[in-house]
Description:
29% of the residues lie in helices and 22% in strands.
Amino acid sequence: MAVPPSQAQVVVVGAGAAGLAAADALSRAGCSVVVLEARERVGGRCFTRRMAGLDIPVELGAEFLHGEARSTHALLRAAGVRAIDSSREQRALERGRLRPVNGFAEAQRAVQGSALEEDVSFHDFLRKRNLPEKTKAFATLMVQGFDAADPKRVSARSIIDEWGEGGELGASQPRPQGGYGPVFDWLARSLVARGVALRLQSAVQRIEWRRGAVTVRGRFLGEPFAVRAKRAIVTLPLGVLQARSIFFPSLTAKNEALKKLESGPVIRVAMRFEKRFWESRAPRVAFFHNPKAPFPTFWTPLPMRAPLLTAWAGGPKATKLTGSSEKTLLAQALASVRSVFRDAPNPVAAYVQDWAQDAFARGGYSYLLVGGEGAREALAAPVADTLYFAGEATDSEEAGTVAGALRSGARAAKEILNSGTEP
């Protein structure tokens, strides 16, 4: 069996976007690197699948490029993959009829001209604002969906910073042609060709450390292994870090940061139908909203034309559903579609992904709690020039995105390379 090597200069825990980016930067600098990944694939919360009968990819994790996403665009260029602009046309169910809406603009309108002397929850922030109910409804919808956050817990200041002038909410959000999966497969092949030891199905259970030395223990296909290195880059998702401590001795220095962040739940249901039945009523519409539905948003793959709808629930909507059977989640997703299109037929195929129930993710992506300013930077800070941290939750500018994860991996690698001592 291809067990992980027993020694390297740097061991990277996790082969999602952050871990692969870190390994890429370190290996280019000549470091010996071992990457340990519990899953049988790379990409982490980027999860691309194929569905029989469809010519397009089905994304069960990250799908779009949000904001400038320079690091993501750079990766796509290196992999020879185009970014395809997505359609932004939206409709919302209002009084039984589909009406044009710009949910992104409504949400941004809710935070325009705002400045908070003291941080509060987004729910309390909205409650005190003199705004139309429609604006408040879509702002709530977007904070639950776009940010996967609970309005009663998320920092209003963080949402204002994200959505405000120059924010990423209303910007163009293209997709990688062919999905994220092939992009990270390409990056993984490049790493292996450069000599990086990439080990899948290698679940890390324990990280023993002291200054200048790390031993990572786990199991590969049921058999124990140990990898020793001078340094480790830990890219585990926030929800996994919060669930249990794998560090010995424990990392008390990270406790406060972990308390100020939350891993937002996300559930996606991708449904293939025999025909694009919605096009008879809304041929150019990409996103449909019904804030009262269990899955309040679903979308088409426009500009690609395929009989595929993706239903999305995040934040409290997902919290109510998480842990339900796939049959129940599919039924709730279909009921949400039928709340907009009453005659919607049954799908002929479907994939369900409940990220909060995924043992290697324990949530979709992170958000900042009230009073959590500085938590991402604190989580990212190295410990004893030995343990380094990456992942979307550690990026203060593009958290919750693939770009943020890529940036964080490159940042952690740079911290090691610039530390003044040999890796």
